[in-house]
Amino acid sequence: MRVRLTQIMAIILLGSGCALTGCSPASGDPGLNTGMLVSTEWLAEYLDEPNLIVVAVGPDRAEYEAGHIPGARHLDLDEIVVEDDGRLNQLPPVAHLAAVFESLGIGDEACVVVYGPPLAAARLFFTLDYLGHGERVALLDGGLARWRAEGRPLTSDETSYEREPFTPRPQPERVVDAEWVAAHLNDPKVTLLDARPRDQYTGAVAGEGIPRAGHIPGAGSLFWQELIVSPEDPALLPPERLRALFGAAGVREGDTVVTYCRTGMQSSFAYFVSRYLGYETRMYDGSFIDWSPREDLPVAVGEPDAPL
Question: Can you give the pTM of this predicted structure?
Answer without folding.
Answer: 0.91
